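Components:
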Amino acid sequence: MSGPRPLPDADHETITIESNDDVVRARQLVRTLAQRCKLSLVDQTKLVTAASELARNTLVYGGGGVMRTGLVRRDSRVGVTAVFEDSGPGIPDLDLALTDGWTSGGGLGLGLSGARRLVDDFTLDTEVGRGTQVAVTKWAR
Amino acid sequence: MTERVPVLKIGDVLLVSIQVDLEDQTVLDLQDDLAARIVATGASGVVIDITAVEIVDSFVGRMLATTAAISRMLDAETVVVGMRPAVAITLVELGLSLGGVRTALTLEKGLDMLARPDSRPPAKP
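Structure:
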């Protein structure tokens, strides 16, 4: 793990993800930011859906963790970033975990691979025994 | 204690209208409640209205598919109505096309679909 990666914009919010209720709060927070960033309705929906998948992964597979989210800027573009971080078991086989339909739990195996398709930028850091960090960004068009 | 989604009965049909941002336990409770109500009422159809639902992720998508399969085994047809365009686009991109779930654009069309038994698709082998 490369350690926590600060968001480029200092103005971000952090919430803990320790219950199903927190998953709902996480996606509501991301939705608020996506609206503030003026993402299109389809892009808002994609980002919030990806955030929902990743927040659930943090809870179910990571044993809980945090989400940091905020607006980001690159050149003249504005976007929304959400970073999900846990200190869980990590992902031993990343290629497998990113395969559609593969799951180590009881899900459909679409969470991680599906979330990656729904966003513009996707980075994943994981180390067995240390934890997992997934960062996603959606840019306004 | 999580809140439960009300299941309404109209004639032969059970109607569920999802109006809140669902947490996972509420989704699982709804699935159980629906199965129990189908058997208790002998309903022949289930309509799940998702007009107010802003996102359907893989968890809720799986619930819709599972509920349709469970109710079919209990001799009831399920129709999901009111899916928003952005939700449909996102679901397909996510990798969930909900092949086994019947859909209608509006509640009225969904009820109409259930009222015409000849419109039922042939049973899958």
